[in-house]
Design a protein that fits this description.
about 450 residues; Flavocytochrome C3, Chain A, domain 1; 8-stranded mixed beta sheet; 6-stranded mixed beta sheet; elongated
């Protein structure tokens, strides 16, 4: 085929939702995925759940999660740095997403336990992100969507505000592909360390990238250079604390650590630097990547004791273990006296005595420290003692392209493109100016992906 109705860039959740929606509306659809087939899907491969509004419990959700509550959570984690009208639209459309995405072959399971606290708000994919992704591919290809792997869009031809064609690099060289409409759903640029340095400086050399090495943002640059309006900056991203022993790329979900609330977090000087009990895990876990990034050498250590070892989901790597705090410090290359002083000061400041409950703020706190722990404070006193070394793990970046309520790209001059749309990480900065809450990335991808596909099909019609 020499010209397609809809050309989709990307191979993850957002791209597949767009492709399926457009194909169901009768369009010819070509999906170009930069990665090889095994690595298709970008971050979708590593996801577990998505956050959608719903008014009642379901077979896999324990209770209602209204659109108003969803919006309150979003405003809290972003500090109000969001396009509120666009976010409310997304949340309103998320009500239908749980049914729609199951119609595309995706299946859900009951929420996991541990420290997640997501049983009411988030739907977990049966088999995880790869199973979810495979289901979308089966549906898309069954409908007649054409997928080409190892095809990278390196340039776009835009006349006025209209997309005309894309320049594509692949194993056989380079080609030009025309389409009536174009949907960018190609992820962020988190694997481009030099680009990260534009926002973070040399600290970015110590960052670990949770997803594949293929998300380098080449399409994002091409679109912005061609006159599409940029949103966000290079320092804003979804960053969590992950095991420092993880590989540079593609460590995925199993390298994340969910045990902050069970102990204390210290930097290389054995000093605490933030309140470990600020809020429950789903709303506050994503602050720790940025916090660790601000510490010397971008390294920190989560320290806890024996009674807490089995209270959270384990990481891929075992914790560092010792029979004393001094011994633990030695294994972590920390000053033993400094770590012992920090732990002693923390233990002496613990007050409260209420039953420990990790699912909600329990009021067990410290009192009198320069940085108090405001919930879940327990004395660290029962050997053996444990620690996990952590570094910033970058999930995806927020610098991308601006869109309107129809998922259409907005040009630098303020005009709205007639036939260019965006979904997923490449436009996530419209919703996430900063911060993160569990599952929102998949919501952005699915809602705006479906919307982009429907709007592209309407334009073709």
């Amino acid at each position: 085929m020499t010209q397609w109705d809809v050309l989709v860039a990307g191979g993850g959740n957002a791209a597949l939702c767009a492709a399926i929606a457009a194909r169901r509306a009768g369009c010819s659809v070509l999906v170009l995925e930069k990665a090889p087939k095994f690595y298709r899907g970008g971050n979708t491969r590593h996801t577990r759940n998505m956050r959608c509004a719903h008014d009642a419990a379901t077979g896999t959700l324990t209770g209602p999660y209204t659109g108003d509550e969803f919006m309150e959570d979003l405003l809290r984690v972003t500090g109000g740095n969001t396009d509120e009208a666009l976010s409310r639209m997304m949340i309103a459309r998320s009500y239908d997403m749980l049914d729609w995405i199951q119609e595309q072959g995706v299946r859900f399971q009951p929420s996991l336990g541990g420290t997640l606290s997501l049983g009411r708000t988030n739907s977990f994919f049966l088999g995880g992100g790869r199973s979810m992704l495979n289901a979308l591919y089966r549906t898309a290809e069954g409908l007649g969507v054409v997928v080409r792997y190892e095809h990278e869009i390196t340039g776009v031809e835009i006349e006025g505000h209209r997309f005309r064609a894309a320049t594509v690099r692949h194993q056989d060289g380079e080609s030009r592909i025309e389409a009536q409409t174009f949907i960018a759903a190609s992820g962020g640029f988190q694997a481009d360390i030099d680009w990260l340095k534009e926002g973070w400086g040399e600290r970015a050399e110590n960052f670990l990238i949770r997803g594949t090495p293929y998300n380098k943002g080449s399409l994002t640059r091409a679109l912005i250079d061609s006159g599409v309006q940029q949103i966000g900056d290079a320092a804003q991203c979804h960053a969590v604390a992950i095991d420092a022993r993880a590989p540079k790329y593609d460590g995925g979900i199993i390298t994340r650590l969910d045990c902050v609330v069970f102990g204390i977090v210290v930097n290389k000087n054995a000093e605490r630097f933030y309140d470990e009990g600020e809020d429950i895990w789903p709303k506050r876990y994503a602050i720790w990547g940025r916090l660790v990034a601000a510490q010397p050498e971008q390294i920190a250590y989560i320290v806890f004791d024996a009674p807490n070892l089995e209270k959270f989901m384990p990481s891929l790597f075992p914790p560092v273990e010792a029979d004393s705090i001094a011994g633990l410090a030695g294994k972590l290359s920390l000053d033993p006296a400094a770590l012992a002083d920090t732990v002693d000061a923390f233990n002496n400041a613990v007050v409260g005595g209420r039953p420990f409950d990790h699912t909600e703020p329990d009021g067990n706190r410290t009192q009198g420290l320069p940085i108090d722990k405001t919930n879940w404070a327990q004395r660290i006193e029962t050997p053996p003692f444990y620690a996990y070394p952590v570094r910033p793990g970058i999930t995806f970046t927020y610098l991308g392209v601006r869109v309107d309520a129809h998922a259409r790209m907005v040009m630098a001059d303020g005009a709205v493109s007639e036939n260019m749309f965006a979904a997923g990480e490449i436009m996530a900065g419209n919703v996430l100016g900063q911060g993160y809450a569990a599952g929102i990335g998949m919501t952005i991808g699915a809602v705006f992906g479906r919307l982009a596909g429907e709007e592209a099909a309407a334009h073709v019609a």
